[in-house]
Amino acid sequence: MMKGKSFKFLSLLLVAILVVSSIAVAGIAVNAASAAGDVIYFDNSVTNWSAVYCYMWSDGSPANGDWPGQAMTNISGDIWAYNVNGNYDKIIFGDGTSGGKAQSDDLTYEGNGKVAKPVNNNTKFQVTWSDYSSDVTLPTSASQPTQATTPKPTTPVGGVGSVYLQNDAGWSNPTCYMWNSEQDKNASWPGVKMTDLGDGVFEYVVPKSFKNIIFNNGGSVKTLDKVFPGAGQIYNNKTDTWEPYSSSPVKITGLTTDTKSPSYTTCGIKITATAKSSEGALTYKFSVNGTVLSDGAASSVVWVPTSAGDYTITVDVKDTAGNENSRSMNFVIKDASTLESAFIRAFSNSLGTNVQIKKNSSITFTNDAIGGAVGTNLLFYKFVITDPDGANNIPYYTLDNKYTFTPSKLGVYTIKAYVQNSMNDTTYKTYQYNCVDVIDETPDTTLPPVTTPTYTTSPTKPTTAPTTATTAPTTSPQPTTQPTTVEQSKLGDVNGDGNINIMDATLIQKHIAQLTTIDTTYADTDKDGNITIKDATMIQKYICGLVTTF
């Protein structure tokens, strides 16, 4: 009997141990899946959804919210993030539609700091997981953007004034989130809805002193974490800039330049201001470091800096009622004489137009560039012109910064203007013109004048101008001609076409870079027994008349 009781007792004891072990193991599993306070990321580059939602749950436990879950926050480019608010081990990413028309399969939660990237853009898809690393972080309080925002008080209660948002990015629900810590914030994420003042300006009355601020579109799109600069400032969500806010009836909505900072001496920079007032016509005074450029009705001006340095561009706008406003921007100018790479400072045509050219009328394009203070101190030019049907010319680099042709078709012509220094460092800009029967465009008289580039070494330009044509040539043209024979037979004529031109120098450079193989018989122009960049430079000097023989 005692043996039976002992056996029964031992059996019950083993069962109890198994139960406790199961509970312990289950507890370990729960802890391993614990995600409270974690951040999970989603790479939207494959799906390109306008909004991303995250639905999380564990069997037998409440989910993180009603389907489709919680809205994620766009933090950088295609990356969206979600601050997890509980303990879950399963997850679904979706586009927020109630029917779940676009969503991932049921996924297993992979842990804190992981980013999920869809393997395709199907209605249902799997993802690949990887570690996400970035300097961009979410505020620890930015948890669930689902609750209604707190109405903004009309007057600050012991507050510090107002902060403003210039909504040039076109957000539908500008919202302001401010905080000092997780416990000290103006509201739960995404913050407080801002008040529309009109003209794209939104206001939030700051109730107390805060160190940090995030502007967001109701939680779906947001700025990075920013240091609050103080009341009375306005932030532009398109240009990512702060400036003092003015309540003047004169509203300056933009101060822009057609060239980004930094630019270079001798380069014309067109400065444009946009402003409006309900109380009269406007006048604009433009100045740079206090020196007035213009003062009158013109809303733009061209500034041609002559010295390198740091500058402040200012526009003062006044209406006929005497109301005023001002805006400034910083601009850096560098010394063009030391610029090695090519820089296109202006592009113009003989008709003086910006967007139109005339069918069957000859037109000359001028590519005004600076730079090239390296090697032979020369710049080489090429114009690729594509007609409305997609056909283009077959150009080569020359020393001529002008190109003449006659458009023969109605429609849009695309011109790519290339510039290359003597070390093959190349840049280009693309321009488009609509070819019409009758030009009805008003020329822009504010554009800076276009001048012919000057060379430090004052080389002699080729005496024969490149041949231009209205259609693509059927044979490879030689736009720059030079004597085809020299005392050293064909030395310098690397491609054996009977001419010594930039194509021969280019072949040598490609050969050095192992991009092509050439017959080196006539390539050793400096006669040192090796094929080097010096040989290509000798050809460039020969083309420009700096040397007459090899």
Give me the secondary-structure topology.
Layout: H1 2-33, E1 39-43, E2 53-57, E3 70-71, E4 73-76, E5 79-83, E6 90-94, E7 103-104, E8 107-108, E9 114-118, E10 124-125, E11 127-131, E12 161-166, E13 174-179, E14 192-193, E15 195-198, E16 201-206, E17 212-217, E18 226-227, E19 233-236, E20 241-244, E21 251-257, E22 263-264, E23 269-276, E24 282-288, E25 291-296, E26 300-303, E27 309-319, E28 324-334, E29 343-349, E30 356-358, E31 363-370, E32 379-386, E33 402-405, E34 411-421, E35 426-436, H2 502-512, H3 533-543
Parallel strand pairs: 1-9, 7-10, 12-19, 22-28, 30-35
Antiparallel strand pairs: 1-5, 2-3, 2-6, 4-5, 6-8, 9-11, 12-16, 13-14, 13-17, 15-16, 17-18, 19-20, 21-23, 23-26, 24-25, 24-27, 27-28, 29-31, 31-33, 32-34, 34-35
Helix pairs in contact: 2-3
